[in-house]
Amino acid sequence: MNCQSKFSVAPMMNWTNRHCRYFYRLMSKNVQLWTEMVTVKAILHGDKNRLLYFDACEHPLVLQLGGSEVKEMARAAKIAQDWGYDEVNINVGCPSDRVQSGSFGACLMQIPQVVAQCVDAMKQVADVPITVKSRIGVDDMDSYGELVNFVSIVESSGCDNFMIHARKAWLKGLSPKENRSVPKLNYGWVYQIKRDFPHLLIGINGGIMDMESSLQHLEHVDSVMLGRAVYYQPYLLSKVDGLIYQQKSSILSREQVLLAFIEYMKVQHANSVAIRSMTRHILGLYHGQKNAKKFKRLLSSKTVELEHLYEWLEYMDKNNGQ
């Protein structure tokens, strides 16, 4: 992440794929988009086109990697750069059992030397920023001093950019879903990290639900990251360019966003992409509007087709958006 990336959408498994990211980009030119976490082994041995392809409009775009084997991480970073990603991020925050069994994610907070080795090896082969996304702690590693130690060791390898989820992760006893809400938020520790490491770029993540809160956090740190708030209320991204980046740009209406995404879906469907695999990302487009439930019912139909979305636009035009 560079100094200009003050606002980003979190990497969310099964959600922030290329179709979802294209949809988000329609509402903000500046928001930094992140891929779902992709494992290093999948990149090295899997279908790279399926895993790494993205539309040029998605820039600025971050590839988040899951892994801990130093040489593999370096190879993946070079591949990411060759594919045109703007940044490569190391996942040091995911608490799922599958991730733990692969020795990456939040469990890496307990072995910061390994994270530092990965950063160093990745920076030697790639010129794009190598960043780290972590928690404030994990299991019994729950003191501020231990968080400082983690940041200090990883910084020593040349990492100058940390995105910190302001919750500790419990690797045993809590599900990944519970880890997003049960551990208490501690924004103060993230703010303090920025004060103690003023030369680093520090981002904050966790429980941020609206633009007003985002602006408040930006008084203390360099960037904010929203996840599920954006997925369920995607149109809030239409405020980002003006409020966060102070750019005077015309804001597309929900109907204009939908029409643009329909045109995108046309092309994708012609290439054998299922309509429902794309429409699932736009369920929240009318969140908070009188017709939100009606829109969701339309998209939830097993027989939804693009023509139904054109009919929706006609309906909205006739009824003045009501």
Automatic annotation (TrEMBL):
List of catalytic residues: C94
CC cofactor: FMN
Site (Interacts with tRNA): N91, K177, R180
Native species: Candidatus Ruthia endofausta
Keywords, in A-Z order: Flavoprotein, FMN, NADP, Nucleotide-binding, Oxidoreductase, RNA-binding, tRNA processing, tRNA-binding
Keyword Nucleotide-binding assigned: yes
Catalytic activity: 5,6-dihydrouridine(20a) in tRNA + NADP(+) = uridine(20a) in tRNA + NADPH + H(+); 5,6-dihydrouridine(20a) in tRNA + NAD(+) = uridine(20a) in tRNA + NADH + H(+); 5,6-dihydrouridine(20) in tRNA + NADP(+) = uridine(20) in tRNA + NADPH + H(+); 5,6-dihydrouridine(20) in tRNA + NAD(+) = uridine(20) in tRNA + NADH + H(+)
Domain DUS-like FMN-binding: 9-303
Keyword Cytoplasm: no
Protein's name in the database: tRNA-dihydrouridine(20/20a) synthase
Stated role: Catalyzes the synthesis of 5,6-dihydrouridine (D), a modified base found in the D-loop of most tRNAs, via the reduction of the C5-C6 double bond in target uridines. Specifically modifies U20 and U20a in tRNAs.
GO molecular function, one term: flavin adenine dinucleotide binding
Residues annotated as binding FMN: P11, M12, M13, Q64, K133, H165, N205, G206, G207, G227, R228
EC identifiers of the protein: 1.3.1.91
Homology family: Belongs to the dus family. Belongs to the Dus family. DusA subfamily.
CDD domains in UniProt: DUS_like_FMN (cd02801)
InterPro entries: Aldolase_TIM (IPR013785), DUS-like_FMN-bd (IPR035587), DUS_fam (IPR001269), DusA (IPR004653), tRNA_hU_synthase_CS (IPR018517)
Domain of life: Bacteria
